[in-house]
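Local shape tokens:
==================
===
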Amino acid sequence: MTARSPWSIYYDKQVGRTPNPLLLEALKHCAEPGLAIDLGCGEGTDTRALLALGWRVLAIDAEAEAIERLHASLVDTPSAALSTDVADARHLALPSCDLLYAGLSLPFNAPEDFPELWQRCCQAVKPQGIFAAHVFGDRDGWAHNPTRTFHTRAQAEALVARGQVLHFAEREFDGHSALGPKHWHWFEFVLRLDAQD
């Protein structure tokens, strides 16, 4: 029997969850639906929530299985407002959007790739648009992994300094991942971005 990937296990555990609280917080600051990018969309819970609220959505994930699961979940209610892409964040070409939501996806990029990815995310958001994301903190249980990016509080605060901070919080707790028990530490934020240079 072929071993299932950690992502497959993760997607199974996400089925039936409610939209991420950070996405719901971000939506409080959006005047009306436009184009949203769900970066690292996983099995699609947050994408489906955006579609239900009248947003056009570009759902992106590096794992083909994530996009397959998203489409399968909408087979009875297909939406012309949805477009999808299987893409590695290092090679993303992001269109101009009103909302960019990256729920626990940006930290899965290596430190050498993170600054450029962060810049491209910020540049994709239209003036007065909303950017909401999580970044891992330096006390996260995976902080020893050199292929992922972690931030101190000061570094996280520096990241969000380029926009109007509408929400910023630090979360630290013991929980689980697809691989088993895990200590989580992240910073979450909602920014309103001005025109970028």
About this structure: The longest strand covers residues 164-177. The longest helix spans residues 114-124. The CA atoms of residues 129 and 167 lie 14 Å apart. Strands lie at 35-39, 56-61, 82-86, 97-102, 125-137, 150-151, 164-177, 180-193.
